[in-house]
Design goal:
Layout: H1 2-18, H2 24-30, H3 35-43, H4 52-61, H5 66-75, H6 89-100, E1 107-110, E2 116-119, H7 121-126, H8 137-143, H9 145-150, H10 154-171, H11 176-185, H12 189-197, E3 209-213, E4 221-229, E5 238-244, H13 282-293, E6 297-298, H14 301-306, E7 313-314, H15 316-322, E8 326-331, E9 336-342, E10 348-354, H16 355-361, H17 372-382, H18 387-418
Antiparallel strand pairs: 1-2, 1-5, 3-4, 4-5, 6-10, 7-8, 8-9, 9-10
Helix pairs in contact: 1-3, 2-3, 4-5, 10-12, 16-17
């Protein structure tokens, strides 16, 4: 049939729907062309293509549905991404359900500019930055000190992300949000240097295997693989699933030789809680089960706080340190924190995370006088509930932590003595 024949078929179908003939002259006016020009297009006598605005006007006139509109764009070698599809609440809900169903593997959904749209419980536990308002993968990976520490060979990761940004720029060079994102990440001198020196382009990081050290896993080195999928309803978005990597094909153990996804049972190896299923009441067990199967949304922060139960404790200082559109509520009975973030639709997305996740996320709170009370509540929550067990655990931890601080201080002194241009500020608290 060809493009010309398809245009004739669409025009005739539109006439049947409208109950009148849709003429070639009418179509020509809609795309700001002469009747002769359009007649040649239908006859296949010209190879000229329509631009996006002409395709959109034609789709309106001929009452094309979404798939037909996409076919029209493809005939004219144009991008089929639907910028309005993301606003469909049904699409968003279905994809959020799919993200949640990937448990216990960390999974997230981001848009074409790497803004985080949805994530599951595991993602929140491993990388709490996704819960912050305006979370963006590129900004985190390329500009945060946290990413530099967690990624092994950070500069190689920068090169991979820069190539992805350049690929996006090739197709959307006039997008102000994309240009703003590139401008922001290139303010970092290391990123700017790699941007100038790397001419490569890359679509995504599907199948990339890389090493990371994560606080949620006690800073153990883990090998993970990134799987990138493109939802048909939102082709410009990416659904990314992170799994353990094993070069022996063993799905039962992780690269460290332990049980696969064992972190789900104990997200903090250094400071395990004494909570067990037997020690919780039915309501608490239901809340934990709910947190592991879906990420609900509520209308108000009061509803979010209520999910922490009757013993919930508001954490306003820590909430403010994370961001203005965040509310944290401690649930002492489940040793968890209800982490609420205002989503783009105005609702509050809910994640339930281990209390230790919040401690790791805001380490600067430990020296903030206003946050001290809230940090003490969180720290007490991750210790065993029984006072004697808690004291025993503290007595085990304190010497270990002191030794670790002394090792870090010794390394800092050695580095400074080798190069005294490095920053070094002595503090009496360094010597424990």
């Amino acid at each position: 049939m060809g493009f010309g024949g398809q245009l004739r078929a669409w025009r005739k179908a539109a006439g049947r729907r409208r109950g009148r003939v849709v003429t070639q002259e009418e179509v020509a006016r809609a795309i700001l062309k002469s009747e002769r020009w359009y007649r040649d297009l239908e006859r296949g006598a010209t190879a000229r293509r329509l631009d996006r605005e002409q395709c959109d006007n034609l789709a309106d006139l001929l009452q094309l549905d979404r798939d037909e509109h996409h076919a029209l764009l493809l005939y004219n070698q144009l991008n089929t991404a639907d910028p309005d599809a993301g606003g469909d609440s049904r699409v968003r809900s279905a994809l959020r359900l799919l993200v949640d169903k990937q448990m216990p593997d960390p999974t997230y959904l981001c848009d074409a500019k790497w803004n985080i749209l949805a994530y599951n419980q595991a993602m929140a536990e491993w990388w709490p930055w996704v819960m912050e308002p305006g979370a963006n993968l590129m900004r985190w990976a390329l500009t945060s000190q946290e990413a530099r520490v967690q990624y092994h060979d950070w500069h190689q990761h920068v090169a991979a992300y820069v190539r992805m940004l350049k690929y996006a720029l090739a197709g959307h060079g006039d997008d102000p949000e994309l240009l703003g994102l590139i401008g922001d990440v290139c303010k970092d001198a290391d990123v700017a240097r790699i941007w100038e020196g790397d001419a490569g382009h890359s679509v995504n990081r599907d199948g990339h295997v890389f090493k990371m050290s994560l606080p949620a896993l006690g800073w153990e080195t883990v090998d993970v693989v990134s799987h990138v999928l493109y939802p048909a309803s939102l082709p410009d978005c990416r659904l990314v699933v992170i799994t353990w990597w094993s070069d022996e094909g063993d799905t039962e153990t992780d690269p460290l030789g332990g049980a696969r996804n064992a972190w789900v049972e104990n997200a903090n190896p250094e400071m395990p809680t004494s909570t067990s299923a037997e020690s919780l009441d039915d309501a608490s067990r239901r809340r934990i089960a709910n947190s592991l199967t879906k990420r609900p949304s509520v209308v108000t922060t009061e509803e979010a706080a209520a999910l922490a139960g009757d013993d919930g404790v508001d954490l306003p200082v820590l909430s403010g340190m994370i961001g203005p559109d965040t509310r944290l509520t401690l649930s002492p009975s489940t040793h968890s924190v209800i982490w609420a973030v205002r989503d783009a639709d105005g609702q509050w997305g809910i994640s339930e995370v281990d209390a230790y996740t919040v401690i790791v996320r805001v380490p600067q709170a430990a020296i903030n006088k206003d946050a001290r009370k809230e940090m003490m509540l969180l720290t007490r929550t991750v210790l065993p509930a029984e006072p004697k067990e808690a004291v025993d655990r503290i007595q085990q931890l304190v010497p270990q932590l002191k030794q670790r601080i002394q090792l870090l201080e010794a390394i800092r002194r050695d580095l400074w003595e080798a190069d005294n241009t490095l920053p070094y500020v002595w503090d009496p608290t360094d010597e424990l």
